Each structure stands twice: as structure tokens, then as C-alpha cells.
């Protein structure tokens, strides 16, 4: 009985407090979570064979150069796949890339996405872009509704150069915003004399990663009115490349507008033997990576 009276008095007291103040007292509101800090751009990069998890040497150099050239807030993401010598997991890499694109678009729809890959990682991006590798279509490609979220695609040392055509020329979905970079000394992507294995493993940083960053920067900054130092668009329109990492005019300046945008020729061609009669033996082809 006493308990009931106490409860009634407490209830009446609370009612009186509400009436007197004219306010409706409610429990403290649950704090609203702060909005996710979306980056200006996200670089989704697939590393080469046997490189440790992450973006790999080429991907790291690309992101560093892109940050330096644009000053943008750039989020890097290393594609999660087994980059093994057997190269049986390119489809897994493509699936992880596509899942990451979907999550990024859902979380940060205004963030511009850049796709990239080196060596076996370039093949991963070929799959994402729907490019047959060696004439064979395999793995999942990016659903078409996400194509507009992709600002640029860059590939390095892609075996597709020697196996049917590169992403810029073969992908109807992403080819128009893509560039492929092949070191002329790289036996993986370049057929001909002068190839050395070091041309594949050491031939892309910093020359080609700097060029690729300038291309990507032009896509990210398009419409802002900000010029990108060193970038020369296809067809030779715009400034020639200069400064650290370049040293030569853009190789695109020598191309006919509309020609395949695969990059070749910034590394000097190998010199011929001093003795004219010296025999030239072909360099053994190293295993693909």
C-alpha cells in the first residue's frame, strides 16, 4: 500500500513538473553518428605476382605521385587476391574489385574511383573491364551501372598487349577513360629485341607511374579549370611532358588521334652491338607474372 502511494506521488510530481514548465521531458537523444569522411578519390589497385598484400610497388608509386600532382584526399585500396605464380585467382581479384566499387559507391557516391593494376594485377582489371585475356572471356565484369563512377583506369605491364589487345582498345565500357603503359624493354607486354626481365620488374617506377598519375589527375580534375603539369592528352594537344620522371615529350604526341592509347617508347631503344658482325640472339622469354 505504501509503495503504491509513493509511486502515485512520484507520478503526480512528474506531471506537475511537466505542467509547470510547459515542456515535454524526453530521454536524452541518442547521438547521431558523424558522417563518413569521404575521400575525393579512391584508387583500387591490383598488385603483381608474389608482391606482398597491398598495392605493390607500382601502385604505391602511382598513389604517391597522384597525391603530389593533385593535392586531393586519395584513399588507396589494395585488391585482395592471391597473386600467385600459377595465376589462378584473377577472377577472385576481379570479384573483390567489383565488391569494393559497389561498397564505395554506396558509402560515398560522389567519390571518384580509379582502377589500376600491374602485371597479373593488370589482367585482373582486364577481367573487370570485360576484356578477353588471350581470347578467352572469364570472370565477372563490372556491372554497367557502375561505369560512370569510374573516373580512370591505368594498367602497367599487361600481357594483353601480346594477347589480343589492351583494355583501352578492347573494353567498350571503360576503354575511353583508360591508359595502358608498356615499357619497351618488358618481355611480358612487348615483343621484340632488347627485352630484359628487369624491364618488367623495375621499368615502371617512376617514369610510367608519374605519367599515369598525370593522366589520372586530368580525369579527376576535369572541369575544374586546373591544369595538370606534364600531362599531354592523346593527339598531341596540350603541354609536353617535362620534369622529373619524364625527360621526353609525351609518347602520345607522336600518335595519330584515335590510335590505340597504349604507351610505348619513353625508354630509349637498346643500342646495337659495336661490331656489325656480332650475332644477335633472342632473349629467352621469362615466365609471365
- The figure for the number of domains is 1
Q: Considering DSSP H and I runs of 4 or more, what fraction of the residues is helical?
A: 25-40%
> What's the N-to-C terminus distance?
85 Å
Using the alpha-carbon principal axes, give the shape: globular
Query: Over the alpha carbons, how many angstroms does the gyration radius reach?
Result: 27 Å
Biggest sheet record: 6 strands, parallel
CATH superfamily: Alpha/Beta hydrolase fold, catalytic domain
CATH domain topology: Rossmann fold
- Number of distinct beta strands: 6
Order of helices and strands: HEHEHEHEHEHHE
List segments where confidence is low: pLDDT < 50 over at least 5 consecutive residues.
1-34, 234-289
- The CATH class label is Alpha Beta
- The name of the CATH architecture is 3-Layer(aba) Sandwich
Strand order of the largest sheet: 2-1-3-4-5-6
Describe the SSE topology.
Blueprint (H helix, E strand, L loop, with lengths): L1 H20 L19 E6 L9 H15 L3 E5 L11 H18 L4 E7 L1 H9 L21 E7 L10 H4 L7 E4 L15 H5 L5 H14 L41 E2 L26
Helix pairs in contact: 2-7, 3-4
Amino acid at each position: 500500500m505504501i509503495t503504491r502511494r509513493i509511486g502515485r506521488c512520484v507520478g503526480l510530481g512528474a506531471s506537475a513538473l511537466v505542467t509547470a514548465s510547459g515542456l515535454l521531458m524526453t530521454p536524452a537523444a541518442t547521438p547521431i553518428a558523424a558522417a563518413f569522411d569521404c575521400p575525393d578519390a579512391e584508387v583500387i589497385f591490383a598488385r603483381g605476382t608474389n608482391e606482398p598484400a597491398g598495392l605493390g610497388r607500382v601502385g604505391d608509386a602511382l598513389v604517391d605521385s597522384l597525391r603530389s600532382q593533385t593535392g586531393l584526399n586519395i584513399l588507396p585500396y589494395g585488391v585482395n587476391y592471391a597473386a600467385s605464380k600459377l595465376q589462378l585467382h584473377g577472377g577472385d581479384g576481379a570479384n573483390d574489385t567489383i565488391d569494393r566499387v559497389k561498397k564505395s559507391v554506396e558509402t560515398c557516391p560522389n567519390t571518384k574511383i580509379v582502377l589500376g593494376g600491374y602485371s597479373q594485377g593488370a589482367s585482373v582489371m582486364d577481367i573487370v573491364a570485360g576484356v578477353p585475356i588471350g581470347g578467352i572471356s572469364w570472370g565477372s565484369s563490372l556491372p554497367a551501372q557502375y561505369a560512370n563512377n569510374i573516373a580512370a583506369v591505368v594498367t602497367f605491364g599487361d600481357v594483353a598487349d601480346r594477347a589480343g589487345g589492351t583494355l583501352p582498345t578492347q573494353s567498350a565500357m571503360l576503354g575511353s577513360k583508360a591508359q595502358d603503359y608498356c615499357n619497351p624493354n618488358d618481355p611480358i607486354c612487348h615483343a621484340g629485341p632488347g627485352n630484359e626481365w628487369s624491364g618488367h620488374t623495375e621499368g615502371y617506377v617512376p617514369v610510367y607511374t608519374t605519367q599515369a598519375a598525370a593522366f589520372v589527375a586530368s580525369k579527376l580534375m576535369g572541369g575544374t579549370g586546373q591544369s595538370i603539369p606534364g600531362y599531354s592528352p592523346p593527339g598531341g594537344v596540350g603541354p609536353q611532358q617535362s620534369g622529373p620522371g619524364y625527360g621526353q615529350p609525351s609518347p602520345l604526341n607522336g600518335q595519330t588521334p584515335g590510335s590505340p592509347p597504349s604507351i610505348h617508347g619513353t625508354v630509349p631503344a637498346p643500342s646495337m652491338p659495336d661490331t656489325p658482325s656480332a650475332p644477335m640472339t633472342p632473349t629467352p622469354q621469362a615466365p609471365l607474372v
